[in-house]
Design a protein that fits this description.
Chain A is an alpha/beta fold. Helices cover about 35% and strands about 10% of the residues of chain A. In chain A, helix 5 crosses helix 6, helix 7 packs parallel to helix 8 and helix 9 crosses helix 11. The two termini of chain A are about 45 Å apart. The model of chain A has no long low-confidence stretch (mean pLDDT about 95). Chain B has about 450 residues and is α/β, with parallel strands linked by helices. Chain B has 12 helices and 15 strands. In chain B, the strands form 4 sheets. Chain B has a 7-stranded mixed beta sheet. In chain B, strands 11-12-15-14 form a 4-stranded antiparallel beta sheet, with helices on one face. Chain B has a two-stranded parallel sheet with strand order 1-13. Chain B is globular. Chain B starts with 7 loop residues before the first helix and ends with a helix. Classes of the chains: A alpha/beta (about 475), B alpha/beta (about 450).
Chain lengths: ~475, ~450
């Protein structure tokens, strides 16, 4: 094996902001004072916050040093399962920072908003085409808020039919946000197990689906990276009892141009623009979680909605059955600009190719690591594959330890201990933007770690050694919370 | 396609390893009747340069500063953003990383967010702030849900001077829950009328915004006392955090939860999002708090570091019993706000906040001199309401022609306030521009 990517570069220490600086320094060019002072009533005036005073250089060094302690997609391969850490094109960043977008007030008169409204309207159409759905709202600010929106739409739909229902079926492989979003809507989540093939069988849904069940939340491909082959049959069962099928689009990156959820029985689904459509994750947001629906749910979509009238775009509130608003304004427009630019840059064939290559990369990893790590379900996967630490039990080496050791080799670890149905899960999603060479290097690193587990287990147990810090004491952090300095 | 690195040779050799004949063959587990046979009906790909042209055209159609002088605030504020903040937040180690589940590889984000939590707590005078929520509106909705959880009561009282669009988001979150929302009217002076509180029992929270939607500064302390007499939590909201460079902070006035929008702190307006849901509370309520929290700890060698903590409140552990369904924070926006707060510093925020107030007062006094009527006489921060003469729409249109956006008409939000406009002045407006505005209004 050639020399691993991971090395110990020069890592600079940097204190907390308030441990540096001196009163009287400033990192901000104060605007000219061209009006007379006008003191505010002393009753209302406070002392001002106890912020440190830092110079511009202090601030720049501080954040530059902090950034070097982080690992991003731009640093290296980030095969975090179900998170779709694909490359985030720089052209997207350019477009979102254009002054006409970045500086736009959300309550401008309609004539001064036309570009933004056109972009919103077209992005809605593109997402409807990609998902095979009839209408789209871009308002939800993240995937979880998209799920909540979807649940509210289901709730409003059943309400309008005069039968508010109390339960919803959620597979045991679902993301934790699914049951949490359902619970916010007052639904009682009912867990359903996947079968020995790692997917849902229609019979298990027949058993659970009744007149008091609002529907089912399905992630397809599911979090085991497997296509829910019985989805059409399941949708039939759910629909026959008057229920609705919610599609969690977290794993949409596997099937763009290949499967359209609207064509296979899904009534409502959310997308994650920060996953499938390459807007960056930003260390945990901002994201954007559009919701796409079939026509029978369209009347309930959040307002305002962008409509076109005589070649002009307008924001309309005129949808009396709407569930209302989820965001103060129209959602994370800055994120939408990036997703729009991505779709326009890719075009239909490249989007499909992206999904094909994402699936190729995952299957390649699955084949190459099968037997090195224990493969949870030995069947063709979609965009991600799930292994476990079962083969390392003998050496008492765990998933966590192997994940940490991957850092020393210069890779971000995969998602670990999820989905919950696989003990010690190691969930790998390479994405389409990793080249064969990068993936081969990753595979070599995993093999090398598995070898270390046998021959030099302490190297794995004590990992990571090359990061800014060693293994963190997370138990102490929770037992004695120190949440501000 | 430049984002897709595979050569035909790579694809062929990888397919061979996988045992598939073609890329299509990889999808053997997708039943035939689930496949989309046609091509997606989407526009053909653009080169980088074509995309630049397209986006330039779209963005140029927007009415923005400096071409337009926009006197609207109402939850989205034009403030100067230092080049340092824009450059530093563009560091791709911050931009292209995920939620910091692996702390050893995410210390940059984690320390940055820990500092954000600290500066936010100091700004609001609160004991603990979370790593942020989506925006001011969802932060308020989460604050009220948290109050319901904490008190086990099902009714909240909300001032009608809280941003009308925030209240609509709260209604959306509340609708399927059966929790009740009571609205408190406003007084002639532009502050919240609390008299209705006497008749309401069993309240989980009393929520007001300060500065409120009319720009008026609420007298928070007595409201907090009233809330506490009712054993309800006192929730204070805000849309303009810069105000707390000058005003008494919510914590010092008895707030149990302080929440609001942080866009003013270095984040572009972006047509309304992404912004920053700031959220802080008393420490005793932390286990009921929604959202991510970063805490300080040590590594195996005893060296200081930071991790996500108290995760047992969260959806990935608790699933349906979580305190919220929120999964992300608005991390990059929170980091932006921290960079901004670090740049202005204690000395700077005081002066900047004062400048916002004073410039707004200048416009107010010039308008008064010109004979315009102020709708409310309570002190304001950087927004205020003017009652313009009947038929002001014509003047508004004429000013638009001069590239001046003369505030926000309040009638769509408060039908009784016809001809009332909410005007906003921040540090970005010069005295000359304010004089010009008044001159145009007098014509």
């Amino acid at each position: 094996m050639k020399e691993p990517l991971g090395t110990t570069g020069l890592i600079l220490n940097e204190p907390l902001l308030w441990e540096k600086g001196k009163r009287g320094r400033s990192g901000f060019s104060l605007p000219r004072r061209d009006v007379p002072p006008c003191p505010l009533d002393a009753e209302l005036t406070g002392e001002g916050p106890d912020f440190p005073d830092l110079s511009e250089v202090d601030v720049v060094r501080h954040y530059t040093r902090l950034s070097t302690w982080n690992f991003g997609v731009d640093t290296g391969m980030y095969p975090l399962g179900s998170c779709t850490m694909k490359y985030n094109p720089k052209t997207n960043e350019r477009q979102a920072s254009l002054p006409g977008f970045a500086g736009a007030h959300p309550l401008l008169p309609t004539n001064l908003q036309q570009g933004a409204l056109k972009l919103i309207s077209e992005l809605e159409q593109y997402l409807a085409e990609i998902t095979g759905m009839d209408a789209v709202t871009l308002q939800p600010a993240a995937g979880a808020q998209g799920e909540l929106t979807g649940m509210l739409l289901m709730h409003a739909y059943h309400q309008s039919k005069g039968s508010p229902r109390s339960k919803i079926i959620v597979p045991d492989t679902a993301h934790g946000t699914n049951p949490a979003s359902a619970a916010l809507c007052g639904y009682q989540p009912v867990a359903v197990k996947s079968n020995d093939q790692g997917i849902l069988s229609p019979n298990s849904i027949v058993e659970l689906m009744d007149d008091d069940t609002a529907g089912i939340m399905v992630t397809n491909p599911n979090t085991l990276g497997l296509f829910e082959e019985n989805i059409k049959k399941i949708a039939e069962v759910v629909h026959s009892k008057g229920g609705l099928v919610y599609g969690d689009g977290a794993n949409m990156n596997a099937v763009m141009g290949i499967v359209r959820m609207g064509d296979i029985g899904v009534d409502v689904m959310h997308l994650n623009l920060h996953k499938t459509f390459s807007t960056p994750h930003g260390g945990g947001g901002p994201g954007s979680g559009p919701v796409c629906v079939k026509s029978h749910l369209e009347p309930f979509l959040p307002v305002p909605r962008v409509i076109e009238k005589e070649n002009r775009f307008l924001l309309s509130e005129d949808f009396p059955d709407s569930i209302g608003k989820l965001h103060a304004f129209y959602g994370n427009f800055g994120v939408m600009v990036k997703a729009y630019n991505y779709i326009r840059s890719m075009g239909p064939e490249n989007l499909k190719k992206a999904s094909q290559l994402a699936v190729l990369n995952a299957n390649y990893v699955k084949e190459m690591l099968c037997g090195v790590l224990h493969l949870a379900y030995d069947r063709p996967c979609m965009h991600e594959c799930v292994f476990s630490d079962r083969l390392q039990k003998e050496q008492k080496i765990t998933t966590l330890e192997m994940a940490k050791r991957l850092m020393d080799y210069g890779f971000h670890p995969p998602t670990i201990y999820f989905p919950l149905v696989v003990n010690g899960a190691i969930m790998i999603e390479p994405t389409e933007t990793e080249s064969k060479e990068n993936i081969d290097e990753f595979i070599e690193a995993v093999k090398s770690i598995v070898n270390e587990a046998k021959e030099a287990p302490e190297l794995v147990r004590e990992a990571p050694k090359k990061c800014k810090v060693k293994r963190m004491d997370e138990t102490a952090a929770a037992r004695r919370p120190c949440l501000s300095g | 396609m430049r984002f897709l690195p595979h050569t035909d040779e790579d694809i062929a050799s990888m397919l061979k390893v996988v045992g598939a004949d073609s890329l299509d063959d990889l999808f053997s587990t997708v039943p035939g009747d689930c496949r989309h046979k046609a091509s997606l009906n989407l526009p053909e790909p653009l080169t980088e340069w074509e995309a630049n042209n397209l986006m330039d055209v779209l963005s140029h159609s927007m009415g923005v500063s400096p071409e337009f002088k926009v006197f609207i605030g109402a939850g989205s504020y034009e403030h100067y953003i230092p080049a340092t903040v824009s450059c530093l937040i563009g560091r791709s180690e911050f931009v292209t990383s995920y939620t910091p589940y692996q702390p050893e590889m995410s210390q940059g984000t984690l320390q940055g967010i820990f500092e954000y939590q600290t500066l936010t707590a100091r700004l609001l005078g609160m004991e603990v702030a979370n790593a942020s929520l989506y925006d001011g509106a969802s932060a308020l909705a989460e604050a009220l849900l948290m109050s319901v959880r904490t008190t086990r009561r099902k009714k909240v009282a909300v001032s009608t001077l809280i941003h009308p669009l925030y209240r609509r988001v709260v209604q959306t979150y509340f609708r399927p829950t059966g929790f009740e929302l009571v609205e408190l009217p406003y007084l002639k002076n532009g502050r919240t009328d609390l008299s209705k509180l006497d008749k309401i029992d069993d309240l989980a929270a009393v929520a007001v915004q300060s500065p409120n939607f009319f720009g008026c500064i609420e007298d928070l302390q007595p409201i907090g006392e009233r809330a506490h007499e009712k054993e309800a939590l006192f929730v204070t909201a805000f849309t303009e955090p810069l105000a707390y460079g000058l005003l008494k902070n919510p914590g010092s006035q008895g707030a149990d939860i302080a929440c609001g929008e942080g866009q003013s702190l270095g984040i572009p307006q972006w047509f309304g999002g992404p912004g920053l849901g700031m959220f802080a509370s008393k420490m005793k309520y932390v286990r009921n708090m929604p959202g991510r929290l970063v805490g300080e700890t040590v590594d195996m060698d005893g060296k200081r570091g930071f991790v996500l903590t108290l995760a047992t409140r969260e959806q990935h552990i608790r699933r349906e019993k979580a305190t919220s369904n929120i999964c992300t924070n608005n991390s990059l926006c929170a980091l932006t706000a921290a960079m901004y707060m670090a740049s202005v510093g204690r000395t700077g925020i005081r002066e900047l906040s004062g400048l916002n107030h004073d410039k707004c007062e200048y416009l107010k006094s010039e308008l008064k001199k010109a004979g315009f009527e102020m709708a409310f006489d309570s002190p304001t921060f950087n927004e205020f309401v003017v009652k313009f003469p009947t038929g002001f729409e014509t003047t508004y249109e004429r000013l638009l022609g001069k590239k001046i956006v003369a505030g926000l008409s309040l009638a769509p939000y408060y039908p009784e306030l016809t001809d009332h406009y909410l005007l906003c002045v921040t540090e970005t407006r010069t005295r000359d521009e304010l004089d010009e505005f008044v001159k145009e209004l007098r014509l």
